[in-house]
Amino acid sequence: MKIFKKILLLIGILLIVGLISIWDLFDRGLFYSRHISTDELNEFYMYKTWEQQEKAFEKNFGVEKYKFPRKKVSEIKLFKNTFLTSRITSKTISNLNKSELISFFNNPINFHWSETTWSLDESEYILRFYDDKDNEIGKIWLCLEGCGMTESIPFSPNMKYGGLSKTGMENINRIINKVLAE
User: What is the pLDDT of residues 141-166, one digit of tens each?
Assistant: First the structure.
């Protein structure tokens, strides 16, 4: 009977660890499809050439409707994109740095038109944006070292295709270093 209890306990522990691991992988990644509204599809993606698409993005730079993250931000947290420890090592960003980050992601100068193939698990950091009810309203993955790319939910034309410009790389590294030094 003791062996049976030990086996059940071991199976229970393994099941809990397995479920936590799966939850963490899904939480840090993007394992579901994103719904893009018909209006956004028509406004940004239904073009025959890249040039036409870029003009559609440029036309909407700074348009309030498409500013990131599209809702009032109460809090931003910076997470290292690490397995199982990202939640306990997160940093809440100060109001000064919060304003700077929101401005950064809404300034097209920080981004260029390049697009590369990279995986979200290559990102070093995840920024999560919360409203005053603690609901996640935005998420940005930052792949800085050797990549220079971002991915965001929700989409914003201000970030072009997610590639960081030279100025953007300098600015985001400066901001992240300030946040980490807090």
Answer: 999 988 899 999 998 999 999 999 99
Q: What is the pLDDT of residue 26?
A: 66
Is 130 in contact with 74 (CB distance < 8 Å)?
yes
Rounded to whole angstroms, the Cα distance separating 69 from 75 reads 12
Residues of the chain with pLDDT under 50: none
- With beta carbons less than 8 A apart as the criterion, state whether 153 and 34 touch: yes
132 by Cβ neighbours in 10 Å (0-12 / 13-18 / 19+) ranks as exposed
* Residue 121 neighbours by CB distance under 10 Å: 13
Supply the angle between the helices 95-105 and 166-181 in degrees, to the nearest 10. Answer: 160
C-alpha distance from residue 27 to each of 2, 14, 21, 141 (Å):
37, 20, 10, 12
Distance linking the first and last C-alpha atoms of the chain: 54
The residue written with tokens 């500013």 in the block is: 67
